[in-house]
């Protein structure tokens, strides 16, 4: 699949959808300061509590409760870099998270995949980490790889992270982001990345890997995530501190209350990173959604989820903070009509809000539990359409072609004109999957889903091309014997 680079490259800007008025946005920010100061956060990491204490927080050691005064949080916002670059290893797909620049990627750490050969749902494995990374490496509208499946075949907890990240590095040169499952695993991945970069300093200067820790709603930093956040902040590596409040269960049921919870909780995470290492690259995050009021379960494909994430994007831009957001998710159990309209609607809305990095936006389904390879390809096409919307309509003398119109006059033919030839390939999004042929000339089984399946099959059967050179690959495998080969 190839598109004009202006359509596929990340970093297009957008502020086309702003669900909050300026007064409402300002009120949410003010109330977030008030919640953090008066209610605070439960912080179960001793290192994190000590960092907060040194920064000026009031810490109740017996309850692990930290009250974060407004000045502490404002100082954290001010000291957080407003621009964070997530580097690719080959320099061709760097993602600059700033202002309202938009990028797309995978995510979700699903525990199942739809098997690309049988179509049946099964537990995900290391082989699925490999295939997902290989596919993302080739899909032009997916700008970075957030490791999107869990290797259920790895039994040792401390080996999970090195397996996920090694096989990601070995199968894509795009930036790799991921959650981490143990303190040892986190430290091992950092050491692996430093080895691959050449040194600790080289990795810090151009980090091609970033990490996701969590603020657990409502308002809790647990021991493991807190310790890992402090470790990564000390290392000066990009760390995302997302939060996932769910309307009606872990946040107020209203969208406004959920947005407030998002903003306050992720600002608490930003404050922790800056309390540990002022100026470290921290990225705020929004993941939450609404509740299915019939079952009280989390909903993945709700349009309100897109509205919430767009509102948080608006606040992040106001505060000049880089943002990790969520879009493109669905509750569908198959790659069907529901999967298409839920994913397309939320992808477009969140992209139009100018969210910097929208994760989960390709391949996820079944309320974030399952990855579909077919959907990964379909979503890549949806994202190409989103990119065309963000490009907008360019208006200048050449694109207006006023003089050409006058010259042609009424009844003029533009088909063979040089102006048409010079613009026709770049002006429109050219889909790889959509069938635009007349019914009479369409080939059998040429619908979009069958074309997506053919793309998956072609990528699966293509020879593997390791992205780590042989000597370095052997060095890493020898250093980390827990990596599944």
Query: How many strands?
Result: 21
Shape descriptor: globular
Strands of the biggest beta sheet: in what spatial order?
1-7-19-18-15-14-12-11-10
Number of helices: 18
Radius of gyration: 23 Å
Main CATH class of the largest domain: Alpha Beta
- CATH-scheme architecture of the largest domain: Alpha-Beta Barrel
The portion of residues forming beta strands comes to 5-15%
Q: Which class of secondary structure composition applies to the elements?
A: alpha/beta
Q: Write out the CATH superfamily name of the largest domain.
A: Trimethylamine methyltransferase-like
Tell me what the structure shows.
The structure is a single chain. With 485 residues, the chain is of the alpha/beta class. It has two domains: 5-21 and 77-391, Alpha-Beta Barrel (TIM Barrel); 397-427, no CATH class. The protein is 45% helix and 13% strand. It has 18 helices and 21 strands. The chain has helices at 5-8, 22-38, 46-55, 70-79, 126-138, 157-169, 183-197, 200-205, 223-235, 255-276, 303-319, 337-352, 373-391, 397-400, 402-408, 418-427, 448-461, 470-479, and strands at 12-13, 41-43, 58-60, 65-67, 84-86, 95-97, 101-104, 112-114, 121-123, 145-146, 176-179, 209-212, 220-221, 239-243, 282-286, 291-292, 297-298, 323-326, 357-359, 364-365, 370-372. It has a nine-stranded mixed β-sheet with strand order 1-7-19-18-15-14-12-11-10. The chain has a four-stranded mixed β-sheet with strand order 3-4-2-13. The longest helix is centred in the middle third of the chain and has 22 residues, at 255-276. The radius of gyration is 23 Å and the shape is globular. The two termini are 30 Å apart.
